[in-house]
Amino acid sequence: MRPNLADADINDLSHQHPSDIAEHIGGLNEQERTLAFLLLPGEQKSAVFTYFPYALQEDLLKQLASADTAEMLENMAPDDRTEIFENFPDLLIKESINLLSPEEKRIALNLLGYPEKSIARIMTPYYLQVKKGWTVRQALDHIKKYGKKAETMNHVYVVDKNNKLVDDIRIGRLLMAEDDQTIESLRDYQFVSLVTTMSREEAIEKFDKYDRSVMPVVSESGVLVGIVTHDDIFDEVERRDTEDIQKLGGLEALALSYTDTPLFTLVRKRASVLTILFLGEMLTASAMALFEEELAQAVVLALFIPLIISSGGNSGSQAATLVVRAMAIKELDLKDWWYVMRKEVLSGLMLGCLLGAIGFLRIMVWQQAGFYNYGDHTVLIGLTVGLSLVGIVLWGTLSGSMTPFLLQRFRLDPATSSAPFVATLVDVTGLVIYFTIAASILKGTLL
After folding, report:
1. Structural domains in the chain plus CATH codes
2. Staple 256 to which of 260, 279, 288, 369, CB 3.0 to 4.6 Å?
3. Is the sign of the CA dihedral 54, 57, 61, 62 positive or negative?
4. Backbone angles phi, psi at 53, to 5 degrees
5. What pLDDT was estimated at residue 420?
6. C-alpha 413, offset from chain centre
7. pLDDT tens track for 25-74
């Protein structure tokens, strides 16, 4: 049953976390949803709005009066506001920005002016900044005066007379210092910063490398222009990982969440890759046609085709997934291809021998138990299947592990070496390996 306004008094609702409030309001019908949202306190509207799905955000903005929209956007953190604007139609962005005060409008336009995937798009201009010549007392007075609007108070950023970042100081160190000490005397001359034009992928790597909860953002000339906090980076990590998982699954990455993506967009994103894979799998039929004569003479070989190609595809998918993930967390780089190849050759041989032995034993047991009669050449058939599994699993692990390196070499996303693509490649080539081995072992007997 869908909730309504009678389910929870709006005053009780307003004391909950913004995420919980957004979840409750999102379950109301359209009329009650708008009313419930309008009844929230001013600043809380901004916090709750950021947790709504994009489609609901757009609907609400269209229904709200200009004054309500202006108040909500004015109170919103600049980085959250920019993220929302990135997913709105151009006309709605223009109308929304024009409702802001001159100062907030300048900030919004400045953030939107950076490259789309740059770290500057998600930074906030609200931070604590002090001059290196100030005393601790001057710095604390400044923090008391302007700190309320700061996104975080973990660090105080030290700048020179040209507003260039020269250091950062933990707020705890500042609080423990004597009032007459200078900021210069507290510096350790060690700080890490991001550059406005840096990609979000690079920023994630820096956060991970230096284990920071917040990092300053500077212009190319070193001028401090904003900060990026850990919650913004967590959102980017989630988007990146979601995109990689979708690509590994064999579809184009979705710009919006699954629930917000329109049906026809979802079909289009999936259809293109499915069509390519289907055309690739058609080569499997062509490969089988090449060995039509062998199949006609030894129909028993057809029984093991699903077993053979699925084993190769599965081993290739495993290898591709392991290597792509290792590349994503910078555990592997292009120069490591030879190390990976050596390791995967051994892995492929060991896994192939394991599956080959199981396949051989399965045929022998079925023959002895009377479950199926493979004829007078059961051992040869078992050897054919066993050796084919060794070769195909080895080829699958090599294909799956090397394809990401090949893509990276040509500056393509390794995640596009998805499991379905590798499986399709191994399916086609696996049949060639299977029938070639069968022709060699069974020649003069079944063939």
Report:
1. 5-113 (1.25.60.10), 129-229 (3.10.580.10), 277-441 (1.10.357.20)
2. 260
3. positive
4. -60, 155
5. 76
6. 12
7. 888 887 788 888 888 877 788 888 888 887 788 888 777 777 778 788 88
